[in-house]
């Protein structure tokens, strides 16, 4: 039987096992919306802004490991998703965005709601397609899912002219797809893996540093097994938290600009660094010239272009993380290789001394709510089991520091692009995927206002999440930099005319709570979490001038970090200021 | 170091843009770029000349390989190779200059393709530095117009780049 292009789109989604599509209709995509209307296998979530659709699909994808799917119209529909697509791109999240386009015969005419969608998205997608012929449609969508979900994942855009969605053809969904120009390496080179293992067991001061790649590739199990076999210290990047249990004694905390003292110093002093699914981002390395001066570096990554991009490595291994780690474990076992236990004991002694510095210590208060305290309580009250999404700013760093993630896919944040507005729609996507779990969006009064409209979507589709708003009345992270680097000239970082968030939540049909005293924090959280079937907006009035520590000032090395209340923040040299 | 990178691309709309985009987005320089269909209608062949340290060239090669439309590539400068570029040049050729211009074209194995009372149009083919050499041999004020094709190249010996 012949199907229309629109029907083919919906059938393809069904074949891919897609349960939710996040989108917003408009002229160029209406045939597809009509096809959606006539079936119920694929459920559609009507967001209030297309950026919200992309973030929600992204949150869904990060929580489940399955691709997020977005459906929008041409022109403004597509341009509104661009921030969301770029967010997914920088964090390598699998996503397929299908957007309407003006009919093929109008393309290039500056037609109504025409933009060059393929051109606009090209720099922030893994790949994109313009489908000009309905007979190519099913195969193109298959390719889109294949590309989005394999190798280093990423967003793929399929631009779909309206006439193609009306044209008819026989529907045939390919079971498998082979592309001569795309076949990511999965299995690591055995010789390289052997060399790496030999180096690891010889190490005197080893360090494991892992990133989002471990989570994306579901390599957590192998990582835990390998790390425990070796008894090495391990740190995770902001994107990698949860891949190794945050409460495990071998875990030394997050590293980087706001990482712990022990993680950063162990990085600085290690002699063998095992980097796994991480990309030596500038927020992690600080000044490259001062990075891991004594280490020989092993780097495992599925993306060859990540290797030796920022930091030259000694043993590159291209392959998928679980695959490579499994082989490492086998090599260790088969050859009965053991790490140097005397040296390790010395190393751990040193690390424990650094740990004793207690770099996440902060000044408690009985009168004003400390943001760190809210997160500590949130951790307790949720038994460390919630899925936490966050926006971008100080609250994001505090969530990363004070909520100890024990499982992968529990921590969902925009690390690469740093997109304010990400947290709320992402929480909605995660909650749809896991209706039984507690999902909490940790945000700030700046970020939350970027995607507030999604509160309506959350009511409509009944996604009861908890919103923890750390309301410091400032664009806190901006203010912190201005305090340290611009002599407290708080240019445009004070948020005046804030709405009454309690009333606002109520106006959207949710529950609102205002919390002003430290003694009310725990109770408020318990009460909110007990309300299982409603979204609760908790507006915590927090210390307006609290800062995130430790902090490696821009352009510093990993051994140059500053501690709360113990070091005075000094402006860094000019080059450093420009660098970050 | 100057590198000549040969790329087999899917013959898809936009494939050229992806390569050009990559270079501008990551700040790599392109000295010249040529692209044309091959004997296989589904493929185009691009030849790209760029400069950079070994680290940068390594990244360029990796980033190009990462593009979904790139089927295969090879850095010709890593082995023996033949490099060719074609140049058409229009020069002043008044009475007193004609013999001299003729002689110069001959030295560079150029061919005079078109002649008027006071101009010659000359074709010169060769490696880019030979074309540069010809250009500097001609009196600058006598040059009316220059057009160069950009470099194409192929590996020496039996090695061949195919899908
Ligand atoms: C879309 C976007 N615009 C601007 C920024 C720059 N930025 C980074 S953090 C920040 C302040 C965030 O303020 P808020 O959400 O209140 O969180 P806080 O830092 O106070 O916890 C800003 C403006 C950004 N990351 N994203």
How would you describe what is shown here?
The complex is a heterodimer of chains A (580) and B (163). In chain A, the strands form four sheets. Chain A has a six-stranded parallel sheet with strand order 3-2-4-5-7-6, with helices on both faces. The model of chain A has no long low-confidence stretch (mean pLDDT 96). Chain A contains 23 helices and 20 strands. In chain A, helix 15 (371-381) crosses helix 16 and helix 15 (371-381) crosses helix 22 (521-530). In chain A, helix 16 links the parallel strand 15 (387-390) and strand 16. Chain A has three domains: 2-170, Thiamin diphosphate (ThDP)-binding fold, Pyr/PP domains (Rossmann fold); 190-355, Rossmann fold, CATH 3.40.50; 371-541, Rossmann fold (3-Layer(aba) Sandwich), CATH 3.40.50.970. The longest helix of chain A is centred in the middle third of the chain and has 16 residues, at 341-356. With 580 residues, chain A is an alpha/beta fold. Chain B is of the alpha+beta class and 163 residues long. Chain B is 27% helix and 40% strand. Chain B is built from four helices and nine strands; from the N terminus they run βαββαββαββαββ. Chain B has helices spanning 15-25, 54-66, 98-107, 128-137; strands at 2-10, 32-37, 43-51, 70-75, 81-92, 111-115, 119-126, 143-148, 152-155. In chain B, the strands form two sheets. In chain B, strands 5, 6, 7, 8 and 9 form a five-stranded antiparallel sheet that branches. In chain B, a hairpin with a 3-residue loop joins strand 6 (111-115) and strand 7 (119-126). Chain B is elongated and about 55 Å long. The model of chain B has no long low-confidence stretch (mean pLDDT 96). Chains A and B meet through loops of A and helix 1 and helix 2 of B. Bound molecules: thiamine diphosphate. Residues 391-395, 418-420, 444-447, 470, 472, 474-478 of chain A line the site of thiamine diphosphate (TPP).
